[in-house]
Design a protein that fits this description.
Layout (H helix, E strand, L loop, with lengths): L6 H8 L8 E12 L8 E5 L5 E6 L5 E7 L2 E7 L8 E7 L8 E3 L2 E3 L9 H5 L7 H15 L3 H14 L4 H13 L3 H14 L4 H13 L3 H14 L4 H13 L3 H20 L2 H11 L3 H14 L6 H16 L1
Parallel strand pairs: 1-7, 1-8
Antiparallel strand pairs: 1-4, 2-3, 2-5, 5-6
Helix pairs in contact: 3-4, 4-5, 5-6, 5-7, 6-7, 7-8, 7-9, 8-9, 9-10, 10-11, 11-12, 12-13
């Protein structure tokens, strides 16, 4: 079976990670739960990666809260100790494609102070004892990126890592910025280290997998993307890039499942490109009619695609092949 040259069609669409931004269309929402009678007027604080408060809100009578207008980055949702209840915190990472609209759910559970149990939210937040000079450099780096100065941001984050080589936040942010800039060879060792320091980081695992896919190291990308998908099962990018890696590694059955899941999660707005990859999967499976269907689905989602004429030509060839 001759393989379609579909990667040439979607390289300009699929293989670019979002540039940094301080504000955006993304949302973090959730519910604050408490054992026993729920306390009223629960204040929920949103912090950035340096643990500086960004916004505050008060949960409604059902414990629900929402923070909107967020850009890509690492956030921390915090509820301080309140009355007879302990506080709780939940780390949230928001990363995706440039045209994505991401909604993250972060529920927090408040335990009675005398209960002795660790809350689920606090347990999920990764913490480190960071030397102050390294922390200061990291904060300067984050501020620089927020101000639109990527060069200064990279410089400060590098200094932070030099001062504290296991600094997870600095490793993850610096690796992510290199990935966004297309500097995948620089990103991979930083993200590998970040994943080793904090294996529960979905964002670092997914960014590592994306970087490896971009470098053509498909089999090496599989463990990171599989772990990222497990940690963030609703991540469109985790499923999308896992499907690409599985396809390139010859696992067509798994690739089809991953790519369909990416589309189910992202829909036309965030995962239209999954159908281009599905077309390659079906073509290699010897199913030209299904490959043509996938390409037509892509054009329905993206009717003004720059490569639409080329895709239509491929569809015609596939239809003729299907007819025998």
């Amino acid at each position: 079976m001759t393989r379609l040259l579909l990667p040439l069609l979607f390289l300009s669409i699929a293989h670019h990670v979002a540039a940094a931004q301080s504000i955006g269309p993304h949302t973090i929402k959730g519910t604050v739960y408490a054992k026993g009678e729920r306390p009223l007027h629960i204040e929920v604080v949103l912090e950035n990666g340096t643990r500086m408060p960004l916004s505050r809100t008060v949960a409604d009578q059902d414990g629900r809260y929402i923070f909107s207008g967020l850009g890509f980055g690492t956030y921390r949702v915090v509820v301080q100790p309140l009355g007879e209840y302990r506080g709780a915190a939940h780390e949230v990472e928001i990363f995706g494609s440039p045209d994505s609209v991401i909604i993250k759910t972060a529920d927090l559970s408040l335990e009675p102070k005398g209960g002795g149990a660790t809350t689920a939210g606090t347990a999920s937040a990764f913490t480190q004892a960071v030397p102050k000079p390294a922390e200061d450099e990291y904060k300067l780096g984050v501020k620089a990126f927020d101000a639109g100065s990527a060069e200064a941001g990279v410089t400060h984050l590098r200094r932070a890592v030099e001062l504290f080589p296991d600094y997870y936040l600095a490793l993850s942010r610096l690796g992510t910025e290199h990935t966004r800039a297309g500097q995948y060879e620089k990103a991979v060792p930083l993200l590998r280290r970040a994943c080793k320091v904090n294996p529960t980081s979905a964002g670092a695992q997914i960014m590592l997998g994306i970087s490896l896919v971009e470098l053509g190291q498909y089999k090496e990308a599989l463990p990171a993307l599989t772990q990222g998908k497990s940690l963030a099962p609703k991540s469109v990018n985790a499923h999308l890039y896992l499907g690409i890696a599985q396809f390139e590694s010859g696992d067509l059955t798994s690739a089809e499942v991953s790519l369909r899941r990416a589309y189910d999660l992202g829909g036309p707005a965030r995962a239209a490109v999954a159908n281009l990859h599905l077309a390659s999967v079906h073509d290699r499976q010897g199913k030209p009619a299904l490959a043509a269907d996938a390409l037509e689905a892509y054009l329905r989602d993206v009717p003004n695609a720059k490569n639409a004429a080329t895709i239509r030509q491929v569809i015609e060839r596939l239809r003729r092949k299907a007819k025998g």
